[in-house]
UniProtKB/TrEMBL annotation:
GO MF annotation list: serine-type peptidase activity
Transmembrane segments: none
Biased composition, class Basic and acidic residues, residue ranges: 60-71
Top-rank lineage group of the source organism: Eukaryota
Protein name: Peptidase S9 prolyl oligopeptidase catalytic domain-containing protein
One GO BP annotation of this record: proteolysis
Length: 834
């Protein structure tokens, strides 16, 4: 249930006791008294509790940066779930006067003050009424200074029972096994069956896609997919859009043979519908009027090379197929009007990626043929659909941000979300849908995932309101219930991983809908460090962003004046973004005393088109500079230890991480590379997927014309600049990035006398499938960082062999290593001058 606190800032630090007071009768007589210890950050977070990125000017906004929402006098909601209590991060605390009157709204003169972390004790009944207040008391005797973002040292608040221990040596209940098993298992957005009212979605279970349905009437969750099927597709290699449903009949792509199957009810046996060999299907939709399915099809038959794409009609009863159009390189989102007379789709051609340039077409459907085809303006368009009134909706970035548009039957166009927030995500995978139209007759409203908000748009007045759910990150898609009174969305936040969530549209109340997923969070939230969005200066007088996770463990605190080690994480893509939801791999480190910065470097999505395009021809430059700038910023703010700075990346993200270790002037003192790319020319010459065939040309440039860029930006070819310890993880069967490159860098570091390690996982491909191997890798990374940072960690246990460790430590102690390092750097400068 939601309880609203009227919060004011106060420069005084201390302990606050917060108690919920019931204003009405609980729904049940039974009142189970719960007590929950939580921690609130004074620094605001993103989403429903927007991160305040200080210093954003109008000029920055015009350059494509997201203006932070003004939080100076906004109510903040603490969300009480029925069985669990979650306390989102709060941007201020109450202004406590001598009389204890704290129940007034913020005024214009009130300012947010960085208070670090404040311990809150919350008491509530299990079935608390829908309205309530918080009585707040202040203990004047507890005046300890607290750390946090903006406080020197970044220490967590010292509790009465915590033990003083150096950062990195904190014991944690979050094990490596727990960290790798806690995954975001929802892989497809929710779909509404318009006849039964069931809500269906797909989860990843034991390496297979499995569909479940949820019945809103009785709360029952039912599995559909038999154990010998895999709901999956490989269209564009990334897949997505694996199933559609109508009248308790499921149509899905089977990853084992690529065909479309039809399944009548959850207990029904799937029957094969399509029989054309070597075809893949994705992003399907069903039209009841025509009894026909419309799919993106990818034909890998004889003479088709790496696949011929198009839009195909499939008879839902017989499986007979007819390709409607196939003249472009790629297609997405074929959607049909309810009367079966119009078809809309998106298409694009190489060398473009879908977020660079594409076109949206609308055509008349006449007896299975396309007629009177019209196309819309250029740009990046996606997710088109028709509502029950035959009005067209789609997402377009013509304003510099992906906004939702509507085209009425009279041809008028409305921007329904004219904010500087993004609707939707880069189209790596098909089938995502960031909005839905209320199916209830006469409702005239849409629910939209707009940035980090869940927004409702009145289609008559165009007014918008944000649904306060307590979550701050929404992904994959959203769907209304049959009545329009609820919506289903994949949501998460700093203490909850992404899950399918039911939202009451009138109140914002939520409940998790679970298939085979474990409840979240799996550990006490007191051990979880919620992310804070930060903005920091970088090169070219620009700004970049990142999510900062500070160390957090109620059982330990660090000695006064000490600072934590930092690991900078690099997301892949690179056209993608960090996801600020619960990631137990991160919490594995933060609960042991490490800080983590998850960087959204220039080129990341979610900050507008201009920011997204800044990486064009600058990959290996701007992303690397931003990773360095983020670490430098935290050092300058005296939040982390400048002698203990690590950087880590996987696959193409490891390219950025390794580049950050070899760039002149690097401040990083250690690194970790997971099956990492160390030479971009290798990527340019390898046989990649059709979708990414020209991606590298956009990111760096044409290899023939700009080979110098590929050389100067290659960590492998600039290995002489590598002077810090690195651990390498690779897989024996990796065909995408052969282990030889990593092994070469490992041998080089070993010959230099630097601490280094190389873990090869037999039988694994590009990335680890085995959770046991994932756990070993996580333990080895933590062990490696603690050893090279000279941290005595009680639970850092791994059998990984670190070469040269003791010799390197001894040489560092007597200063010999510093002389060798200077000699290498001088030699490097001479070589670069020549």
């Amino acid at each position: 249930m939601s309880v609203r606190a009227l919060l004011l800032s106060n420069p005084t630090r201390g302990r606050w006791s917060v108690t919920s007071t019931r204003l009405g009768q609980p729904n049940r007589k039974r009142r189970a008294f719960l007590r929950h210890q939580a921690t609130a950050r004074a620094s605001p977070s993103i989403g429903a509790y927007p991160a305040s990125a200080a210093g954003l000017s109008q000029g920055n906004r015009e350059r494509g940066h997201q203006e932070p929402e003004d939080t100076s006098h906004a109510l903040r909601t603490i969300l009480f779930n029925r069985d669990q209590i979650f306390l989102p991060t709060i941007p201020s605390v109450v202004d406590n006067d001598k009389e204890g009157n704290n129940d007034h709204d913020m005024s214009d003169g009130d300012q947010l003050t960085d208070l670090g972390r404040i311990d809150l004790t919350i008491h509530t009944h299990k079935n608390v009424a829908q309205s309530g207040v918080l009585s707040i008391t202040y203990d004047e005797s507890d005046r300890q200074g607290v750390g946090g973002v903006g406080a020197e040292g970044g220490q967590q608040r010292e509790s009465a029972t915590s033990t003083e221990t150096e950062y990195g040596n904190w014991r944690s209940p979050i094990t490596s096994k727990m960290a790798v098993e806690e995954e975001n298992t929802v892989v497809e957005p929710p779909h509404l069956d318009p006849i039964t009212g069931y809500v269906l979605w797909c989860e990843e279970l034991d390496g297979r896609g499995v569909v479940f349905h949820y019945d809103p009437e009785n709360g029952e969750v039912v599995r559909w997919t038999p154990y010998n099927y895999d709901v999956r597709t490989r269209v564009h290699e990334y897949g997505g859009g694996t199933f559609t449903v109508h009248n308790n009949t499921l149509f899905f792509s089977n990853g084992l043979d690529g065909a479309i199957y039809r399944q009548e009810g959850p207990q029904g046996t799937p029957t094969r519908l399509t029989n054309t060999k070597n075809r893949r299907y994705a992003d399907g939709t069903y039209n009841e009027k025509l009894n026909t399915l419309f799919y993106v099809v990818e034909d890998h038959g004889e003479g088709k090379g790496d696949g011929e794409n198009g839009v195909v009609m499939v008879d839902a009863s017989t499986g007979r197929e007819k390709v409607l159009i196939s003249h472009a390189d790629f297609f997405a989102s074929p959607r049909v009007s309810q009367d079966g007379k119009k078809l809309v789709w998106v298409q694009w051609n190489l060398p473009n990626m879908p977020w660079d340039e594409n076109r949206m077409f609308v055509a008349q459907l006449r007896n299975g043929e396309l007629a009177i085809i019209k196309f819309f303006q250029h740009g990046s368009m996606m997710m088109p659909s028709f509502d029950q009134n035959d009005e067209l909706f789609y997402v377009h970035d013509s304003t510099g941000w992906w906004n939702l548009y509507r085209v009425t039957r009279r041809g008028f166009e409305n921007n329904l979300t004219p904010e500087t927030q993004e609707v939707g995500w880069p189209v790596w995978r098909l089938g995502r849908q960031a909005y839905d139209i209320n199916p209830r007759l006469g409702a005239r409203e849409a629910v939209v995932i707009c940035g980090h908000d869940l927004t409702v748009v009145d289609l008559a007045s165009l007014k918008r309101r944000v649904i306060k759910t307590g979550y701050n990150t929404y992904s994959l898609g959203v769907a209304y219930s049959l009545t329009g009174q609820k919506a289903y969305v994949v949501a998460g936040d700093g203490v909850r991983s992404s899950r399918l969530v039911e939202v009451e549209m009138a109140t914002g109340l939520t409940r998790e809908v679970r298939g085979d997923q474990p409840p979240t969070p799996p550990v006490d939230v007191a051990y979880l460090s919620p992310p804070t969005l930060i903005q920091f200066p970088t090169t070219q007088a620009d700004f970049a962003y990142g999510y900062l996770y500070m160390p957090k463990n109620p059982d330990f605190h660090a000695p006064t004046g000490s600072k934590p080690p930092l690991v900078v994480r690099v997301h892949g893509g690179p056209t993608a973004a960090a996801l600020p939801v619960l990631n137990l791999r991160y919490q594995f480190l933060t609960s042991r005393g490490f800080a983590i910065l998850d960087v959204d470097y220039r080129g990341s999505s979610g900050y507008g088109k201009l920011y997204r395009n800044k990486l064009n021809e600058m990959w290996g430059v701007y992303d690397v500079e931003d990773v360095l700038a983020g670490a430098s910023h935290l050092v300058e703010q005296r939040l982390v230890d400048k002698a203990k700075l690590g950087v880590e990346g996987r696959s193409v993200a490891a390219y950025t991480a390794l580049s950050a270790l070899t760039i002149p002037g690097s401040i990083f003192t250690a690194g970790a590379s997971y099956w990492g790319v160390s030479d971009p020319e290798m990527l340019a010459t390898m046989n990649t997927s059709k979708l990414k065939r020209h991606y590298l040309e956009a990111l760096i440039g044409n290899l023939d014309r700009h080979k110098d860029r590929y050389v100067t930006r290659s960590p492998l070819r600039n290995h002489q600049r590598l002077h810090v310890p690195v651990i390498f993880f690779h897989c024996s069967e990796d065909k995408l990035v052969p282990p030889d490159q990593a092994k070469g860098l490992y041998d080089l570091l070993k010959s230099k006398g630097l601490p280094t390690a190389f873990m090869l996982f037999p039988g694994e491909g590009h990335g680890l499938i085995s959770s046991e191997n994932e756990a070993k890798a996580l333990e080895a990374e933590f062990f490696f960082f603690t050893q090279v940072f000279n941290i005595t960690a009680a639970d850092a246990i791994s059998d990984v062999k670190i070469n040269n460790l003791e010799l390197w430590r001894n040489e560092r102690m007597n200063g010999k290593w510093r002389k060798m390092e200077e000699k290498w750097k001088n030699k490097q400068q001479v070589e670069e001058t020549e």
